Amino acid sequence: MVKTLAGFGAFGLFWGAWGAALPAVKAEAGVTDAQLGGALLMVGLGALCSMRFTGYLIDRFGGVVLPVAVLLFGACGVLPALAGSPVALGGALFLLGATSGATDVAVNATGSAAEADTGRPLMNLAHGLFSIAVVVASLGTAALRASGAGALPVLGGVFILIALLAAVVLAPGSTHIKPVVAEKAPRRLEPALLVFGGLCALAFVVENAWQSWSAVHLDTTLGAAPALASSAPAVFAAAAATGRISGNALLRRLKPAQLLVAGGVIAAVGSALAAVAGNAWLALVGIAIAGLGTSVCAPTIISMAGAWAGPERRASAISTVTTIAYLGFLLGPAMVGAASSVWSLPTALGGVAVLAVVVAALGPVAGRAETKQPR
Questions:
Q1: Residue 184: which pLDDT band, with cuts at 50, 70 and 90?
Q2: Helix axes 256-276, 280-295, angle to 10 degrees
Q3: Shortest CA distance to 307 belongs to which of 192, 199, 200, 205?
Q4: How far is Cα 312 from Cα 374, in angstroms, rounded to an integer?
Q5: CB-count exposure of residue 358 (10 Å: 0-12, 13-18, 19+)
Q6: What is the distance of C-alpha 128 from the center of its chain?
Q7: 3-state secondary structure of 77
Q8: Number of Cα atoms under 13 Å in the Cβ half of residue 156
Q9: For 119-231, where are the alpha helices, taking DSSP H only?
Q10: Please, which residues have CB within 8 angstroms of residue 123's CB and are 6 or more apart in sequence?
Q11: CA–CA separation, 162 vs 13, rounded Å?
Q12: What is the tens place of the pLDDT at every residue in 150-183?
């Protein structure tokens, strides 16, 4: 359990610092907005290339993969601060994405194994800690940037913290987590994994749509003051952390599919309210409600996938689900942007509410899939 929480905390520390340090990375690399956008695509490409392979490594070598992946992730996190050209930045971000994808699979697989070993829900709590770490690291980095710190001191400092966590918390005893390998791995993708992965992708579309577009919605649609508009992602992240920690407690009384349905319904209500709100404060309330609801969806689905797979295929199943789901995470903001160019941003965000309804409607399908063991 401690390793899971430490892994998610390390993961959140970097990504919270990254968002706040990105302007410094851009300036020090000497790239334009267009070049930065192209380089950032390499993060997603690198993650997609590494996720499935990491699942295989965990099933083959066991718990030792987690500290190695986290340490490599922290080290690669420093590379963008050293880039001096668009090509170098793109290469650095590909390596960052590859190690980020590996870490994502490793922490989720470790969390799923801990749930199976202890019989207690953990995944929502761990994802909640990730959200808290993002907020703390983002605020800390903002303070460092205000004092004049550049990208290298910030990302280098984060690497030191991550390396300490990997050495002190994650590495000790990691070799005692034994790999369990199935006698013969299946050659085809089972329908249950498509259900879990597709549903998780929809949940990520809803989540990342509000994380990426909430500030723009308040600014351009509702004419909010810059400070108020900029607070929207923080409000969403804080609500997500609250929802995940609360959802973890609710799993003692609810089945995972029931929590998934409830989360989808709450996310739909919040998304609809934020989309149609006539003023920024009401929209912030809707964004917070959407954060509460959507926050429990992805962790619950990943937990269900791990429970479905069993010990022989847990890491491979989670890597498959997270790879499919990551496509939704990457495409969500772009889909909202495309829809808003055809209709309007409020209409596009209203479509996000519809997707949340779909997540709620398909929750029982995921629940039934969880009960059918893999062949």
A1: very low
A2: 160
A3: 192
A4: 10
A5: middle
A6: 11
A7: coil
A8: 7
A9: 123-146, 151-165, 191-216, 226-230
A10: 108, 111, 112, 115, 248, 299, 300, 302, 303
A11: 8
A12: 889 999 999 999 999 999 988 887 654 555 544 4
CA trace torsion 258, 320, 192, 363 (10° rounding): 20
Two structure tokens written together for 17: 């610092």
CB distance 306 to 112 below 8 Å: yes
Q: Is 331 exposed, middle or buried (0-12, 13-18, 19+ CB in 10 A)?
A: middle
- Which helix (H) or strand (E) segment holds residue 361: the answer is helix 345-371
| Beta carbons within 8 Å of 80's beta carbon, 6+ residues apart | 25, 29, 89, 92, 93, 96, 151, 155
Token pair of 305 as six digits: 């996938």
User: Distance of CA 230 to CAs 217, 220, 236, Å?
Assistant: 10, 12, 11
- What pLDDT, in 10s, does the model give residues 306-348? 888 887 788 888 999 999 998 887 887 778 888 888 899 999 9
Residue 281's contacts (CB-CB under 8 Å, 6 or more residues apart) are none
Q: Which of 54-63, 143-152, 285-294, 335-344 is modeled with the greatest confidence?
A: 285-294
